[in-house]
Write a sequence for this structure.
């Protein structure tokens, strides 16, 4: 496996970020990105969408640059979009008739939300975030903890998109912005958490 370290270094420089900041965003110690780029630690399935988001690229590009063979020319499935998500992570349901292309093998239960930045100049504007709709009513577990998820909070209506982290109180969680790492909502009960399985810019 040959990792394209130069590409990652240039990308980090061009985006004006750092390996330390990226490690914080994927909730790991500051050396993690360095270890991944030097082949001393494998990137987890859960970290790939977040890395793609941080690097302002696709998951396929990240996998390819990490030396993973990505099939070319495979036909994507078309899935329905349920709504849009803004900078605060709030999802607005209702995007009638809009569809998005999802990776090959995505089942009928795969759906997407579309990022809609204010004014359209946000780096994530137009990105599709894919999740498995059958994960509805699934509580926070090892799969969704520290991962980017579409969640329903307590008795509130609607969805939020963010990284699920343990809260200070037992059974309560914080929701962080995947792009900045900043806390969006703190100390809430999460009714269900559907992990984002793929991101397409």
């Amino acid at each position: 496996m040959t990792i394209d370290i130069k590409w990652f270094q240039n990308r980090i420089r061009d985006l004006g970020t750092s390996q330390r900041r990226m490690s914080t965003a994927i909730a790991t110690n500051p050396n993690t990105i360095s270890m991944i780029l030097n082949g001393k630690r494998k990137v987890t399935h859960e970290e790939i969408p977040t890395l793609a988001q941080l690097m302002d690229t696709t998951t396929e590009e990240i996998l390819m640059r990490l030396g993973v063979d990505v099939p070319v020319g495979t036909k994507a499935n078309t899935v329905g979009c349920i709504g849009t998500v803004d900078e605060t992570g709030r999802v607005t349901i209702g995007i009638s008739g809009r569809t998005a292309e999802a990776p090959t093998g995505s089942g009928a239960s795969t759906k997407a939300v579309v990022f809609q930045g204010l004014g359209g100049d946000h780096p994530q504007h137009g990105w599709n975030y894919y999740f498995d709709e059958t994960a509805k009513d699934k509580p926070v577990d090892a799969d969704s903890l520290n991962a980017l998820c579409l969640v329903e909070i307590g008795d509130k209506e609607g969805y939020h998109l963010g990284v699920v982290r343990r809260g200070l109180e037992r059974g309560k969680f914080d929701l962080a912005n995947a792009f900045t790492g900043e806390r969006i909502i703190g100390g809430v009960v999460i009714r269900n958490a559907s992990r984002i399985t793929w991101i397409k810019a």
Observations:
- The chain is about 20% helix and 30% strand.
- The longest strand covers residues 190-200.
